[in-house]
Amino acid sequence: MARQVDLVIVGAGPAGLMAAAWAAFYNLKTVVLDKRPSKIEKGHADGLQSRTLEILHSFGFGDQIYREANRLQEVCFWVLHLLRATPRLLITDDFQNPDNNGVIRRTDRIPDTILGISRFQQSVLHQGRIEDYFLEFIDRTSKNVHIQRSTEPFGMHIDETLVEAADDWPITVRTRSTQDGLTNGVPSNKDDLIQCKYLIGCDGAHSWVRGQMGLVMEGEQTESVWGVMDVIPVTNFPDIRMRCVIHSASSGSIMVIPRERGLVRLYIQLASIQPGAGHRYDRAKGSPEMIFEAAQRIMRPWEIRYDYCEWWTIYQIGQRLGNGYGAHDRIFLAGDAVHTHSPKAGQGMNVSIQDTYNLGWKIGSVLTGTARRSILSTYESERRPIAKQLIDFDRKFSRMFSGRPAKDIADEAGISMTEFKSTFEKGNIFTSGTSVEYAESQVVSSSSGKILRPGVRFPSFQVVCQCDATPVQLADALKSDGIWRLVVFCGDLTQDATNQRLKTLGKGLEDAISALNKPVVEPILVHASSRDNVELADVPAPFYYRSNSNERDYYRVFADDWSYHHGHGHAYGGYDVDRNQGLAVLVRPDQYIAWAGDIDDTGAMEEFLDGCLL
Question: What is the mean pLDDT of residues 334-360?
Fold first, then answer.
């Protein structure tokens, strides 16, 4: 007898757990299949970009991760210099690197995270701890999400006659144990049959789900082979606790990533290994000793060794993109299952989490009957272009990272370090995740040139709560809880014109048949008056009463005003909102702006929402 569930997720890595977190919030009956016997304990992904931390914070545990993680402050660039003059950091020629006939020296430094881009800066924490936080959230949020380890799918069928039927289970998955014993107390050496309404494949670069759909990865495998090590180093290298990019002349390159608990991650180019075009390097031939010898050659004359190695691996750079993201808007691919690239830009875990962050609320909204099933097609139309941009960037970044530095301006075979630094700086805004912009679609209206324009994530500035004078980040009111927000910047409430526009909006919010009066749409008000000149009763009741209830909600009316201990947030200036004209924006459950317009244009708001919601 088959079990019937809402959702099956294949893979319990970061992408799968992000999808499971949404499933837990929506209380969807969900099974997560993972062939591993346990979560990741060490190594693997570790970089957390600004946008990812914003997302995790919106679920209520990003600030805990941020406190535990190591925050990266600065990037230092080290390049080989021929011994024409004594480098500032080195005193004698005893530091000469005989392999390179020169020395490596620090040539520049830049901030690791672009200033002002987010309140969170790039940080590192190993994947296992991030999985811990996801698992704790899922466990305390819902008892309907079950993670079934040591289990893999080995058969899948989709009944195409049922894909448009809301209350049927068109997908059948057959599973089996990857080891003898028990899975959640059930004998796991027996086959199991699961019927589900939706399925997400988060099962990595060699995705079984992708293969079942007949989709393929398109792209190229490079000849560049790298080793990765997490060690506690013993070294006289001065920037070992900075993020560093080190280019030698002929021995290869290194990226240094300082981590938590005194660990340092080293990405080490194995320049002596050339597998040839189209060939894969046999990783079984590698060893930590071989990798670290390459690191020592690159870092000469600086000395480095280690007494403790927590994890190591070898990988060959490849940039590939799936030729499709799913089938019938019932089966979807996310993360490495649909795009692969090098890990040095710190995008693997981040883009994977952002994939299922985009997808999870859409599936949850459809299954709980609040959104039209047609919105599911926007997953591929929104996320595939982002993956394409990532692979294009990674192709250029990896080529420059793996190349030797140019000896002089006439050395066309070498890499210009000036160009490399420029690429690195420009890439930082993309890799932060904050610059992602979605095109017009069913869930994104046509865009204008403002900061708060449809398709971009809602940024955060400080405002002051009207009811208790508490300073808050406005984005903290946009929790990942499946709710659409209508954020209204009404302007100065002491002006008659402002009040008239707000009253018009208030009537629309109170209209029983209006799309604006749905339980999944929550209005938030940000006024530009002095808080002393405004009372809560001065604004329409929907901004401080809960939908269809007499219960008051005191934390949806804010002032762009001074706070006693944190100064003025100047939110209207930060958002580029005219204090006389005002602005209203509809924000999706994933904090991306869906619509923007005049605060009294209730007709346009309702029309847009009617196209998305049921």
Answer: 90
The CA distance from 332 to 326, in Å, is 4
Q: How confident is the model at residue 92 (pLDDT cuts 50, 70, 90)?
A: very low
C-alpha pair distances (Å), 54 with each of 63, 91, 512:
9, 45, 34
Residues paired with residue 444 on neighbouring β-strands, in sequence order? 441
DSSP readout, 259-289?
A: -GGG-EEEEEE-TT----TT----GGG--HH
Q: Out of 350-364, 411-425, 470-484, which region has the weakest mean confidence (pLDDT)?
A: 411-425
Tokens, residue 34:
């993972």
Tell me the two tokens of residue 402.
């793996």
Catalytic residues: 46, 259, 267, 343
Hey, what are 103's tokens? 């020395």
For residue 90, the model assigns a pLDDT of 41
Furthest-apart CA atoms within the chain: distance in Å: 82
Q: How far apart are CA 93 and CA 82, in angstroms?
A: 11
Calculate mean pLDDT across residues 462-468. 97
Q: What is the pLDDT of residues 188-245, one digit of tens each?
A: 556 799 999 999 999 999 999 999 999 999 998 777 889 999 999 999 999 999 999 9
DSSP label of 421: H
What is 4-68 written as a DSSP string? EEEEEEE--SHHHHHHHHHHHHHT--EEEEESSSS---S-S--EE-HHHHHHHHHTT-HHHHHHH
- CA gyration radius for the chain? 26
Tokens linked to 445? 């209206």
Q: What is the SS3 string spanning 143-163?
A: CCEEEEECEEEEEEEECHHHC
Q: Please, what are the domains in the chain? A: 3-67+122-216+323-386 (3.50.50.60), 69-121+220-318+390-431 (3.30.9.10), 462-612 (3.40.30.20)
Q: Is the model's pLDDT at 99 over the cut of 50?
A: no
Give the model's confidence band at 404: pLDDT under 50 very low, under 70 low, under 90 confident, else very high.
low
Segment 526-552 mean pLDDT: 91
Other beta carbons within 10 angstroms of residue 327's beta carbon come to: 19
| CA distances (Å), origin 508, targets 3, 501, 555 | 45, 11, 21
